[in-house]
Amino acid sequence: DTGVSQDPRHKITKRGQNVTFRCDPISEHNRLYWYRQTLGQGPEFLTYFQNEAQLEKSRLLSDRFSAERPKGSFSTLEIQRTEQGDSAMYLCASSLAGSLGSTDTQYFGPGTRLTVL
Amino acid sequence: GQQLNQSPQSMFIQEGEDVSMNCTSSSIFNTWLWYKQDPGEGPVLLIALYKAGELTSNGRLTAQFGITRKDSFLNISASIPSDVGIYFCAGRGFGVGNEKLTFGTGTRLTIIP
User: Fold this and answer.
1) Is the per-residue pLDDT at A103 higher than 80?
2) Nearest CA in chain B to A92
3) How far does the CA of residue A29 sit from the closest CA of chain B (Å)?
4) What pLDDT, in 10s, does the model give residues A33-70?
5) Which of residues 18-57 of A touch B (CB under 8 A)?
6) List of residues 6+ apart from A5 with CB closer than 8 A
């Protein structure tokens, strides 16, 4: 299967600890997005990359959050000094943009569920 | 952050019934998408709409991109048990710098035995 994959699927951590999540996009996709979803809400945009360049960051992405996509393939999202309010599902999506006939449609991974105790 | 207005919030139906839900926005969108999400999983794309007025079907699902570009609806015909889940609309703005999706608040579909 060549869909978007995320690791880990679940993470439980204590307040104040750092956590890192990984996303592997669909192999030919050049855009990669991170969203956060809290219980009962739709996903909310955090940031996105085109190849290795981070092109947009939401104001939801506080300075404790950092995302990278060093080689334009997989991406990592790190949260430093976690707080209980960071508990959420973190979703990754990828799309193909700029190619003839591409629709830039975003396909999502299964998510990483973070619980901060 | 901004979320689109999606209605109804929840639906309780019997198997075999048709379902209709819609999504409205105060902003115009270039693209409308409909996703389904099961508990503990990521959203799965159902239908993508790229032109105002477009009506697109995917099996028992039909969706339309509103003429004003500010709304969309999704219909499911002859519902079956695997249709249970949460349905989200999502819109994408125009041009460079508007690549992110803005999601609706979701419609939870439950099938009563």
Assistant:
1) no
2) B42
3) 14
4) 999 999 999 999 999 999 999 999 998 889 999 999 99
5) 31, 33, 35, 40-45, 48, 55-56
6) A23, A24, A109, A110
